[in-house]
């Protein structure tokens, strides 16, 4: 093996180690409860039970939060800095929203001061 080949192999190994494990993919599509997914299909909200989660935020009938960074598919909990709004309130607040991917059990969202929302599953 030549010195050039050895250096190429070492460079490849170092690059692989530096890159670490493959990054999780950005969440694709919409996830929601039954009412939320129906709203996605119809194109509008018509119930207080409406909840939809996307890579960019979570939305309920009268409130929502936009994430500062996109939600990824990794299992476990992601804490996301978010700009939140609520119907009937002026302005927005900055909150840390926790989104937990429990695999087959779906996604669960925790917004400070509210009960956990979920399970939210992929909308057909």
Automatic annotation (TrEMBL):
Its taxonomic path starts at: Bacteria, Pseudomonadati, Pseudomonadota, Alphaproteobacteria, Hyphomicrobiales
- Give the signal sequence positions: 1-24
Keyword list (alphabetical) reads:
Signal
In its UniProt entry, the species of origin is given as Mesorhizobium tianshanense
The protein here is known as: Secreted protein
């Amino acid at each position: 093996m030549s010195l050039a080949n050895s250096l190429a192999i070492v460079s490849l190994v170092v690059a692989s180690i530096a890159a670490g494990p493959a990054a999780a993919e950005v969440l694709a599509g919409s996830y929601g409860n039954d009412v939320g997914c129906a709203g996605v299909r119809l194109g509008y909200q018509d119930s207080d039970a409406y909840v939809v989660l996307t890579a960019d935020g979570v939305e309920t009938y009268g409130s929502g939060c936009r994430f500062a960074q996109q939600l990824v598919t990794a299992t476990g909990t992601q804490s996301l800095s978010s700009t939140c709004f609520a119907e009937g309130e002026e302005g927005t607040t900055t909150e840390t929203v926790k989104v937990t991917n429990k695999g087959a059990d779906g996604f669960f969202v925790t917004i400070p001061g509210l009960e956990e929302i979920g399970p939210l599953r992929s909308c057909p």
